[in-house]
Structure to design on (440 residues):
């Protein structure tokens, strides 16, 4: 019985909808004719009649919608009374009726908007409406603009834009001048960004004769170079706190431990880059030198260049054998450069997680007592030493009275000879660090 009642109601809905659509078409036609006639100076009886017909159609439409809502409510109530809420067919049937009604309303509303806009536009065109009256009609028909589309926040894009901005702001050349040292640095012509670094620590523990200096050459990015510049000196000084005076072996071991702690700290960052480094500790009139990779320290003693470090490159037979004995692959690449696993040209460095089975972070150290013959130290990355000889570099510093000018001159000399690498040069005046018994 309920199924038959529902079928009857559905057919009634269809018939009423058909009649309503016919009324809508007549209503639009009547409204169009009335609007056209109203545009004339005097309104005719026909226009008043058509206006009355339009009002009648609007009343019929509102009655229809009210009746339709009441029927829908009664159908839902009767269905749930007969079948209960647990009956999914009854639920679906009531939901289908509701959706059909909602879709029908929406469709009719859209058609009304389109039809009304077309009718008024046509009537305005025929009657020649213009000026304020035409503007008033257009303002009522103005369509709401579409919503703005706001893209989701993209932190990766913001990070890339900030990184590019930083690269643009980075200086290609810079210089530093301190009380007992000076430095000049230049970014390589083919480098995307500067990978060299440096660090100076003076007046350690309030002692003007204690200092730490380092020149750093990064590869695979600047992350390792930045980390070493920030942490190597602090780690070494922390280890030296536990070493007494006149304990050379323990002091060198403390420096090695400072390098090891720095290496482990950087590897824990999970960043794939590396850095070579050369450092010196000046303490109690003694020079303590350490290095990894191909940064170099040269001492000028009475104008003669003395190399205090050893380049850790794969062209060194002992370094190459050490790597091959531990399963590494060393290949002689183009331009006469030996490379580990076909990529890295140095055998010792901080970082390089992917090559850590062969690239060690243990530096070679050397201790030298300072004498009055020790004039200055020349520390530089391989961007200088690949193009400028050790003695030639010392001669440039000796010739120039201004140490900063000599640093810049050495940088320009290497660059003019075709160096495409980053170049960093540091000069340290050793006179200020001599022990009291060596001062003249």
């Amino acid at each position: 019985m309920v199924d038959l009642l529902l079928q009857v109601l559905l057919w009634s809905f269809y018939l009423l909808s058909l009649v309503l659509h016919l009324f809508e078409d007549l209503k639009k036609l009547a409204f169009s004719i009335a609007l056209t006639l109203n545009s004339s100076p005097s309104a005719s009886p026909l226009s008043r009649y058509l206006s009355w017909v339009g009002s009648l159609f609007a009343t019929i439409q509102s009655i229809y919608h009210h009746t339709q809502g009441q029927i829908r409510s009664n159908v839902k109530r009767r269905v749930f009374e007969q079948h209960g809420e647990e009956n999914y067919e009854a639920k679906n049937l009531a939901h289908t009726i509701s959706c059909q009604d909602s879709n029908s309303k929406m469709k009719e509303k859209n058609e009304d908007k389109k039809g009304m806009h077309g009718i008024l536009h046509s009537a305005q065109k025929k009657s020649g409406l213009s000026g304020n009256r035409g503007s008033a009609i257009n303002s009522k028909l103005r369509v709401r603009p579409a919503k703005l589309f706001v893209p989701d926040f993209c932190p990766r894009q913001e990070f890339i834009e900030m990184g590019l901005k930083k690269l643009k702001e980075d200086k290609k050349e810079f210089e530093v001048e301190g009380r007992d040292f000076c430095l000049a640095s230049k970014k390589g012509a083919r480098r995307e960004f500067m990978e060299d670094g440096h660090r100076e620590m003076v007046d350690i523990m309030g002692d003007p004769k204690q200092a730490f200096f380092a020149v750093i050459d990064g590869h695979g990015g600047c992350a390792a170079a930045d980390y070493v510049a920030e942490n190597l000196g602090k780690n070494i000084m922390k280890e030296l706190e536990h070493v007494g005076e006149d304990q050379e072996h323990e002091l060198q071991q403390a420096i090695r431990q400072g390098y090891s702690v720095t290496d482990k700290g950087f590897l824990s960052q999970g960043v794939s880059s590396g850095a070579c480094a050369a450092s010196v500790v000046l303490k109690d009139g003694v020079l303590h030198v350490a290095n990894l990779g191909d940064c170099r320290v040269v001492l000028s003693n009475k104008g003669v260049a003395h190399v205090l470090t050893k380049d850790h490159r794969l062209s060194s037979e002992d370094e190459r054998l050490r790597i091959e004995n531990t399963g590494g692959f060393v290949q002689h690449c183009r331009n006469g450069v030996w490379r580990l696993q076909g990529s890295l040209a140095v055998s010792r460095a901080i970082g390089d997680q992917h090559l850590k089975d062969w690239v060690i972070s243990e530096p070679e150290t050397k201790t030298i007592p300072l004498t009055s013959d020790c004039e200055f130290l020349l520390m530089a990355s391989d961007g200088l030493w690949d193009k400028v000889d050790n003695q030639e570099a010392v001669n440039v510093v000796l010739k120039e009275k201004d140490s900063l000018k000599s640093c810049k001159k050495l940088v320009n000399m290497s660059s003019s000879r075709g160096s495409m690498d980053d170049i960093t040069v540091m000069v340290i005046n050793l006179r200020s660090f001599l022990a009291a018994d060596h001062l003249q």
